[in-house]
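Re: that backbone. Tokens:
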């Protein structure tokens, strides 16, 4: 089954009020789901160098050179960088790598905000190591609250990318995941609601739900299912759904009350 066929099936299941969409995804796991760590994002090094030198007065170090040489970065490479990130310098490089991966060759409008955040973080030597430590210790609510309160210029879709990447080096569960507009679109299409109003606790509920869905998939014989894989497919599915849920009449859900940009 082609990816867009499955997207259509899930969308139709939601539109008809059928809450068994997750069963559809589980049935087609082997065809639909990819190894998340194999995902590679391409970017333009010259553009990033220009923005970093002019906007943040900062140049990428040796740890990022392989990515700049290949003009691409994968989740697996981010995991390696995460394992080596502990102090301000290594965490700042990890943050930059995360933003490069998160933006790719799109989201050009985000450059001023992202570079502004990098510039501000250079003057906060403890912030990135401390939030990384919170994520790795499983304090997802606290890390989310601190990142949201810091007003770096980037919002949940991008600072949860930092949470996700910072936590790649830990085996603790639940582990941080990305929560952006595409993921929210999928959660809304699946009829999911956290029941939480506070954004950080809503995020924590989503991460735990992804773990539960991965466990359910494994119980059905999909031994390779992980919460990370669930998040990646929610993202890909959401990219197909777009923001169409807003055009249909349905009960309010978390995705409708949450900004889907930046």
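Recovered sequence:
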């Amino acid at each position: 089954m082609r990816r867009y066929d499955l997207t259509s099936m899930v969308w139709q299941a939601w539109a008809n009020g059928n809450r068994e969409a997750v069963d559809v995804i589980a049935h087609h796991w082997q065809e639909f789901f990819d190894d998340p760590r194999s995902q590679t994002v391409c970017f333009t090094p010259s553009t990033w160098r220009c923005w970093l030198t002019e906007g943040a007065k900062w140049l990428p170090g040796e740890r990022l050179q392989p990515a700049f040489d290949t003009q691409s970065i994968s989740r697996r490479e981010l995991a390696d960088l995460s394992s080596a990130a502990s102090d301000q310098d290594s965490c700042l490089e990890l943050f930059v790598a995360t933003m490069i991966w998160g933006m790719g060759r799109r989201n050009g409008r985000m450059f001023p905000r992202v570079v502004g955040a990098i510039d501000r973080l250079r003057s906060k030597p403890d912030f990135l190591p401390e939030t990384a430590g919170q994520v790795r210790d499983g304090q997802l609510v606290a890390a989310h609250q601190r990142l949201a309160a810091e007003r770096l210029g980037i919002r949940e879709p991008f600072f949860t990318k930092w949470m996700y990447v910072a936590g790649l080096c830990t085996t603790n569960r639940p582990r941080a995941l990305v929560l952006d507009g595409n993921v929210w679109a999928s959660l809304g299409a699946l009829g999911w609601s956290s029941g939480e109003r506070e954004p950080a606790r809503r995020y924590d509920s989503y991460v735990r739900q992804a773990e539960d869905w991965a466990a359910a998939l494994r119980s059905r014989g999909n031994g390779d299912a992980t919460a990370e894989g669930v998040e990646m497919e929610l993202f890909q599915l959401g990219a197909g759904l777009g923001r169409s849920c807003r055009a249909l009449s349905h009960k309010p859900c978390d995705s409708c009350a949450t900004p889907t940009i930046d």
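The CA atoms of residues 27 and 220 lie 9 Å apart. The first strand starts at residue 40 and ends at 42.
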